[in-house]
Design a protein that fits this description.
The chain is built from 24 helices and 15 strands. It is of the alpha/beta class and about 750 residues long. The strands form two sheets. Strands 1-8-2-7-6-3-5-4 form an eight-stranded mixed sheet. Strands 11-12-10-13-14-9-15 form a seven-stranded parallel sheet, with helices on both faces. The chain binds adenosine-5'-triphosphate.
Length: about 750
């Protein structure tokens, strides 16, 4: 892969090499003039020169002077060896093992200087190789102090726990693991030991490993590191530390992490006792952060920017699009349409779809993932196959998070539903799409998220899908090359009105509507509360803002009554709003939750469409009188979720029409709704949760009949797929209709 990268780099990155390198003067900083390159050293004398350089630099370190003279800009890794700036072992690892030839802008601008020992804060675009920019100087200093570590040998003395020379702090666990993996690649042919200390992992096992093998480079997250350093029995000491790196420095220096970073700093050796180099890296460096960073950097430090202030901080080769959707209820259909487009493009010779879908909150990630995971299977596979689905957020265990992130890294085609845990630093190969649902929290968040695609010279697309009423988006995207996009048909549909739709749109609305219903109330309720809170905190027109969220519950999730809100949220409601229209009665018991899709009056109701819930289907075929949901214009499918080929009008049918599978027994006389029949005949529709299989169930009992995902998954939230004949019968609070 690296070879491929360096090839594409020659085309893309190298051409831009040094173009925008800029050393800024900020108060108290030195401007460094680019010195001309030193003379080329013939290869025969190179090693001698390096040895001499290493000796000199070791002395220099002892006298607290920079270890290597800055030799001016360099653009190839080979030059580090040719000029005696880095040990041959490092150059060999970079060029031979990792297959890298040319440096990126940020590497060219920082590696030489960092090797000279100065402190620096560096800002460069995402995916341009900042990790190696700090790992190379780290490794050089370690080998410089102990040249015996340069070669891999079983004879070299074992490291001890307090041998750590470099500490790299990362804001997230996954990023720490990724940095450690890159460091291990770089040090593969040396005796330098890399260790990781991250929260959520087994502390005792990590300590045992450190005791057994020792540590030279420690990569850690702030929480676990503080824990280890303040635990006197852990044995972790950083008394020999000579390099401190903060990756994603602006994040680590913001309010959330700053106190912890300061606490960690107090555990490090005093600078006058042991000179230390501090390196701060990020794609974004707000001014306030730079001010704060001075508390960590020596007075004589540099700020290096490889992006001019008048240039966009994102990559030109990543087109950035903004889709304004009609309402919150259009978000998932528009997302589905976009993902289908991506798969279609792959089928027509494009790159396999590999998308990260970012949401602002964990609740939204969970709901989004659940909806897409519950899409009706086609031929026993997800309609988004071959793309595999993943979710990642902070509510998952570390084991699940690592599995998701490793799984997504490896697949050729996949969709990862993610919170901001993977917004920064993560280097997933070949990501084709970054999609942000709703306005990101800040411009910096937007930049980092977009940076998950278009890395190391590759192509990618960026999309933001947000309601048209979102006023914050303009400020967030100000000055960025974002273009409005109107290509998604489902984005602008008025889902509150019945309509006759093109085939694709009808299919999308039906499938998303159906999948949404499979998802339990707990997840919907969390998202409802989150969005209502945001709306009440931010909306200028509060009534309209509140109504938008109520509409989501009604037209997006098909709920007759909105989920219940806490007193805290209700307390924020402006006067004049009828509470009963915004909050359902008390939180449902599980049994209520299960039957949340029942129709109170036994009549089928709205889902998507049916303003008052009384209509018999949202976007139905006007002429046919069908009661099915979103019909396509050609009059193809009649039932909400019925099998296309089937004559039946109701519900899910098994494709092969077997009486055991599918969503409705073929023989059933109920032509009613997908979810619960209109009549009280319990034989059809999405019914019979308790005794599924008697006449029909979905997913089918027998998984090999095409259930997707497996049944256990589907019912994980309490079997909410019960029909109105479900055990608790009668009227239900969270009801919605059956006909779409
Ligand atoms: N000189 C180079 N030539 C080609 N590829 C490189 C080079 N340096 C690094 N890479 C590769 O580029 C990819 C991105 O690197 P890296 O993750 O360090 O980027 P970054 O700048 O830290 O990104 P972010 O801002 O998102 O944290 C990695 O796969 C890395 O191996």
């Amino acid at each position: 892969m690296h070879r491929a990268l360096s090839r594409c780099q020659s085309a893309g990155i190298t051409s831009a090499l040094l173009r925008n390198v800029r050393v800024a003067r900020i108060a108290g900083l030195q401007r460094v003039a680019a010195a001309p390159s030193t003379a080329f050293i013939p290869s025969a004398s190179r090693f001698l020169h390096i040895q001499q350089s290493l000796r000199q630099t070791a002395e220099a370190t002892r006298s607290h002077e920079p270890s290597v003279d800055y030799h001016g800009p360099i653009s190839r890794f080979e030059e580090l060896g040719e000029r005696g700036m880095a040990h041959p072992a490092i150059v060999q690892a970079l060029t031979k093992q990792m297959g890298l030839e040319n440096m990126t802008d940020v590497q060219a601008a920082t590696v030489g200087k960092a090797l000279s020992g100065i402190d620096m804060a560096a800002q460069a675009r995402t995916g341009t190789g900042k990790t190696l920019a700090f790992l190379v100087p780290i490794l050089h200093r370690i080998i410089e102090e102990n040249p015996a570590l340069a070669a891999r040998s079983s004879h070299s003395p074992l490291a001890s726990m307090d041998d750590s020379r470099a500490l790299v702090i990362s804001p997230t666990r996954e990023l720490a693991e990724q940095i450690a993996a890159e460091a291990r690649r770089l040090t593969a042919n040396t005796n330098v030991i890399v260790q990781v200390a991250v929260g959520g992992s087994n502390k005792r096992a990590a300590l045992q490993e450190m005791r057994r093998r020792g540590c030279h480079i420690l990569v850690a997250t702030p929480g676990r590191l503080t824990d280890l350093l303040s635990d006197e029995y852990s044995g972790v000491k950083l008394s020999k530390l000579n390099t401190l790196v903060l990756d994603e420095a602006d994040r680590l220096l913001d309010d959330g992490f700053w106190p912890e970073i300061m606490r960690i700093e107090r555990f490090l050796p005093q600078r006058k006792e042991r000179p230390r180099q501090t390196l701060l890296f990020s794609a974004t460096m707000p001014r306030e952060v730079l001010q704060l960073s001075r508390q960590l950097l020596q007075p004589k430090h540099e700020f290096i920017q490889t992006v001019n202030e008048d240039e966009a901080p994102t990559h030109e080769r990543v087109p950035q699009k903004l889709v304004r959707v009609d309402g919150y209820q259009n978000l998932m259909p528009a997302l589905y349409e976009l993902l289908l487009q991506g798969n279609e493009a792959a089928k027509n010779g494009g790159r396999p779809l590999k998308a990260i879908v970012f949401f602002n909150t964990t609740a939204e990630v969970e709901l989004g993932f659940s909806i897409f995971r519950n899409l009706r299977p086609k031929d026993g596979r997800s309609p988004l196959a071959p793309a595999r689905l993943f979710e990642i957020h902070s509510k998952l265990s570390q084991f699940q998070r690592t599995a998701a992130s490793e799984g997504f890294r490896k697949v050729e085609s996949g969709i990862m539903f993610s919170s901001d845990v993977s917004a920064r630093g993560m280097d997933f190969p070949n990501v084709t799409h970054v999609i942000q649902v709703r306005c990101p929290r800040s411009t910096d968040t937007y930049i980092h998220r977009v940076g998950r695609t278009g890395r190391a010279g590759r192509e990618g697309e960026s999309w933001v899908i947000t309601p048209k009423t979102d006023t914050a988006i303009r400020g967030t995207l100000k000055g960025l090359p974002v273009k409005a996009d109107n290509s998604l048909g489902t984005a602008t549909l008025d889902m509150k009105q019945p309509a006759e739709l093109p085939k694709l749109q009808a299919m999308i609305l039906n499938e998303i509507g159906e999948a949404s219903r499979f998802v339990g109330m707990t997840q919907k309720s969390s998202v409802y509360t989150v969005l209502m809170n945001i709306s009440l905190d931010n909306s200028r027109d509060m009534e309209a803002g509140v109504q938008e969220i109520v509409d989501l519950s009604k037209y997006g999730w098909g709920l007759r009554y909105p989920p219940a809100l806490s007193r805290f949220v209700l307390g924020k409601l402006p006067r004049g709003i009828d509470v009963s229209t915004v909050s359902g009665p008390a939180t449902p018991r599980e049994s209520d939750d299960r039957s949340s899709f029942q129709d109170r009056r036994g009549g089928s109701r709205g889902g998507f469409g049916g303003r008052d819930g009384g209509s018999r289907g949202g976007f139905q075929d006007r002429n046919s009188g069908s009661r099915g949901g979103f019909r396509d214009r050609d009059g193809g499918s009649r039932g909400g979720f019925q099998d296309r080929g089937s004559g039946s009008r109701g519900g899910f049918r098994d494709r092969d029409g077997g009486s055991r599978g599918g969503f409705q027994d073929r023989g059933s006389r109920d032509f009613g709704s997908a979810y619960g029949s209109r009549s009280n005949d319990a034989s059809g529709g999405f019914s019979r949760g308790g005794d599924a299989g008697e006449r029909g169930s979905f997913p089918p009992r027998n998984n090999d009949r095409g259930a997707y995902p497996p049944r256990s998954d589907r019912r994980s939230d309490g079997g909410q797929g019960r029909g109105r004949d479900g055990s608790s019968g009668g009227s239900r609070r969270y009801e919605s209709g059956g006909l779409f």
